[in-house]
Amino acid sequence: MSTLGNRENRDEASNMLVGENVPAKNAIEVKGLVKSYKQLKVLDGIDFAVKQGTVLALLGPNGAGKTTTVHILCTLLLPDSGKALINGLDVVKEDDKVRGLIGLTGQYAALDEYLTGIENLHMIGRLYRLRHQDVKQRTQELLELFDLVEASNRAVKTYSGGMRRRLDLAVSLIASPPVIFLDEPTTGLDPRSRLIMWEIIKQLVSSGTTILLTTQDMDEADHLADRIVVINGGKIIAEGTSDELKQRIGSERLEITVAEASDFDEAKKVVDEDGLHFDVKRRTLSVVTKGGVHQLKKVLSDLDDAGIEVESVSYRSPTLDDVFLTLTGHTTEQSNGETKDPPKG
Amino acid sequence: MAKPSFSSDIQKEKHSKVFWALSDSWVLTKRSIKHITRNLDQLFSVALFPMMFFLLFRYVFGGAIDTGNISYVNFLVAGIFVQMLAFGANYTTMNLAIDLQRGIVNRFRSLPITRSSLLTGHVAADLVRNMISGLIVIGVSFLVGFQPVAGPTDWMLVFGLAILFSLAISWISAIMGLLVKSIEAAQWTGFIVIFPLTFVSGAFVPTDTMPEALRLFAENQPLTHVIDAIRGLLVGTPIGNSGWLAFAWCTGIIVVAMPVATWLFRRQTLR
């Protein structure tokens, strides 16, 4: 069981404002955030809020403004206009206090390559200004939790990608900050490491931590987030719970692969269903489905009637592309060929 | 997998701002000092490069250089020593640039720490590295015939001045590290600045045979004062005004460069 009973005691700001039985207030509040790099408007008026102890996923393609939003909330960047609060503290005016409340795990592991796992944890623990004995104890707990005990005395440069991510997250948890930012925590991880990461994130939430995570993966947002904010070109294009979004975008896709490329155009005409999405290269057509057998039968018999041979049929979860197709009418590639997150440095 | 158990009694220590400024700097100095022992390449290259110059000048050019009534090797040691300190400080530029290019700087910036402590850590660790390299250079100089006349007080003054000079040039290097756009650029900026400064000085040759403009520059730039002061202390050549001028230059540079570097580092957050 989690033993995170008195988080409120450590969190002076919220302690002053929130009594014990008041319903959860917002751990993160963002209002009208705007940020430009030279001519490029990266954030164009972003508003959202994250309740204490919940997970919000910022879902969007590269260059949507996810990392910029996280960097502003972590006091690494100043917004051009707008306001952002962490536990009621302004990230611009009270940045020093905000830094004591947050943990950041970025897209690229922010670790010291020459130090060992233990040394990385000790260093950051002391920089969070924890007592020596607490740093030692937390380090041990986190190494065990993240399955890094064996590697703990090795230099980080010998770690695998998955181990680095786990250590990186462990480091940002050393002071048990009440608010954690995870910037694409599973991008580039193998499937197993990804599942481990998901498990850790779920456990963190169950212990009362507020999490803002960014992802390009609809499936990940669906698994982890209480609320999802879909962001594109610096603007929010949809927001809601996973279920609410699924009602708009459909829960699953029926995907049909046509055997002959020459039949593809004909097949597009025959399969005239809701949310049709096709990929010429892979010879696939996908449609929104509620999982019913009727629709499957109809699509297959229509194709059969037209003399089109079907190679395979499968069901799959909606991807980020499907989300964008439904919400904006085009897929992510078309909506944003231009941008990557601007260089940091 | 185990459930996360969070120690519920974790508390932040309560201390004064000054305490934390020192503590943060110390934690980050320890980090950079660990880099020295784990990245021996850097330590050796700091000592190796001047060592090559040392042997080159001692045995190749030295015979043709007239240093009056002291032997060339006795003349040369102070120059090599100061050149080594100057090149060593370039690692502040490089290590800082490396931190800035990698994600780790974002982690440090998102922590509730004293802002300048990352810079202080690099500068302090480079001082340690420079002192180790300095001892190696002095050790080797005895092997090639160096015969100092310095007493204990003179040696203490030499190392005091070496520390001051190392800090001054490291803070300038910190500024360069914050301004360069890449790690490659960091490797070269130091050389571009330090090469002319060490050669257009009294490090390897007496300045009086240089063309007038060059001689004026060489005789009045800070490295020459530091070199002349150290040379005087080691082998008894006349120091003149160079002693207090060296002290004034180094102190002045530190007083200006430290806040400038800190300001630059802060400003980078506000992009």
User: Can you tell me the overall shape of chain A?
Assistant: globular
Q: Shape of chain B, please? A: elongated
Distance between the termini of chain B: 41 Å
* Main beta-sheet strand count, sense and barrel state of chain B: none
Unreliable residue runs of chain A? 1-20, 334-345
Number of domains of chain B: 1
Q: Report mean pLDDT of chain A, rounded to a whole number.
A: 82
What does this entry look like structurally?
The complex is a heterodimer of chains A (345) and B (271). Chain A is globular. Chain A has 345 residues and is of the alpha/beta class. Chain A starts with 6 loop residues before the first helix and ends in a 10-residue tail after the last helix. Chain A has 14 helices and 14 strands. The longest helix of chain A is centred in the middle third of the chain and has 16 residues, at 191-206. Chain A is 36% helix and 25% strand. Chain B has one domain (19-269). Chain B has helices spanning 17-38, 40-61, 72-101, 104-109, 117-143, 152-179, 183-199, 212-220, 222-235, 242-269. The radius of gyration of chain B is 21 Å and the shape is elongated. At the A-B interface, helix 4, strand 6, helix 5, helix 6 and helix 8 of A face helix 1 and helix 4 of B.
